[in-house]
């Protein structure tokens, strides 16, 4: 898989957003257990500094979550990498079309962009209209073809399911049944589960017969999955 991304001059970056600074983030991810070269290359290619406010651009290649407004955050790169690696472990028959991936919690759009850069077909749902509008502008200007909707993602996107992979980027008190139901046989779902004190990243796999198997991957910290929609 190759990164499908058209780099504009501002996406190439200078100083604290230069390729050298980005390469340091890649080294850090490698030293903290991320080994899938496809994921590392996508993180190297996608300009994270264009997914945060200009005032925070100099911190964009630190391995840390950053505020994106409305009390929300762009996830820590390590968490993005770990979740993406987990989805890429989904078994695919030779010659199968790109995986169809549903993301709940578009936020800045960064995680969706990483998935799209990997050549996956991405669908993303966000409950805060203003965040979604900003993310859509980024997708357009960087040339990503990502389908999105403004909705409460706890219902998933039933008309377009099932999905080969589902990634929930906000913390749920428990796995969401409607989302598990929209996961295709042989699919993988990743979701942080737990309360405000901290959560566990859960991987759910569905086999050919639809039987599910759950594993705990890592402790993580996410903003909560909230009900309803706001403009
Ligand atoms: N994947 C994002 C992370 C954003 S933080 C990124 O790469 O930047 C989590 C996001 O989930 C927030 O934008 C929040 O508004 C959104 N969210 C929370 N509950 C939601 C719900 N029920 N449906 C859709 N989005 C939700």
From TrEMBL:
Predominant cellular place of this UniProt entry's protein: cytoplasm
Annotated catalytic residues: 75
Keyword Nucleotide-binding set for record: no
UniProt GO molecular function: protein-L-isoaspartate (D-aspartate) O-methyltransferase activity
PROSITE patterns: PCMT (PS01279)
Localization of this protein: Cytoplasm
Record has Methyltransferase as a keyword: yes
Alphabetized Pfam families for the sequence: PCMT
Biological processes, Gene Ontology terms: methylation; protein repair
Catalysed conversion reaction: [protein]-L-isoaspartate + S-adenosyl-L-methionine = [protein]-L-isoaspartate alpha-methyl ester + S-adenosyl-L-homocysteine
EC number: 2.1.1.77
Record SUPFAM superfamilies: S-adenosyl-L-methionine-dependent methyltransferases
Domain of life: Bacteria
GO cellular-component term (any): cytoplasm
Protein family: Belongs to the methyltransferase superfamily. L-isoaspartyl/D-aspartyl protein methyltransferase family.
Function description: Catalyzes the methyl esterification of L-isoaspartyl residues in peptides and proteins that result from spontaneous decomposition of normal L-aspartyl and L-asparaginyl residues. It plays a role in the repair and/or degradation of damaged proteins.
NCBIfam families, alphabetized: pimt (TIGR00080), PRK00312.1 (NF001453)
Protein name according to UniProt: Protein-L-isoaspartate O-methyltransferase
Encoding gene, per UniProt annotation: pcm
């Amino acid at each position: 898989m190759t990164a499908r991304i058209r780099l504009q001059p501002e996406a190439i970056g200078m100083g604290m957003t230069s390729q050298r600074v980005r390469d340091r983030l890649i080294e850090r991810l490698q030293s903290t257990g991320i080994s899938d070269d496809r994921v590392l290359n996508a993180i190297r290619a996608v300009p994270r500094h264009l997914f945060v406010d200009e005032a925070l651009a100099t911190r964009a290649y630190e391995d840390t979550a950053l505020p994106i407004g409305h009390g929300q955050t762009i996830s820590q790169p390590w968490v993005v990498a770990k979740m993406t690696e987990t989805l890429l472990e989904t078994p695919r028959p030779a010659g199968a079309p790109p995986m169809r991936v549903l993301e709940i919690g578009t936020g800045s759009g960064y995680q969706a962009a990483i998935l799209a850069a990997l050549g996956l077909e991405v669908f993303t749902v966000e409950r805060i209209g203003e965040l979604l509008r900003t993310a859509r502008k980024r997708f357009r200007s960087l040339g990503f073809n990502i389908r999105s909707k403004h909705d409460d993602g706890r219902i998933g996107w039933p008309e377009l399911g099932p999905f080969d992979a589902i990634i929930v980027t906000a913390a749920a008190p428990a796995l969401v049944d409607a989302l598990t139901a929209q996961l295709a046989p042989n699919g993988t779902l990743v979701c942080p589960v737990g309360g405000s004190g901290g959560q566990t990243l859960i991987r759910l796999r569905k086999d050919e017969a639809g039987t599910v198997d759950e594993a705990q991957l890592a402790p993580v910290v996410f903003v909560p999955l909230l009900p309803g929609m706001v403009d």
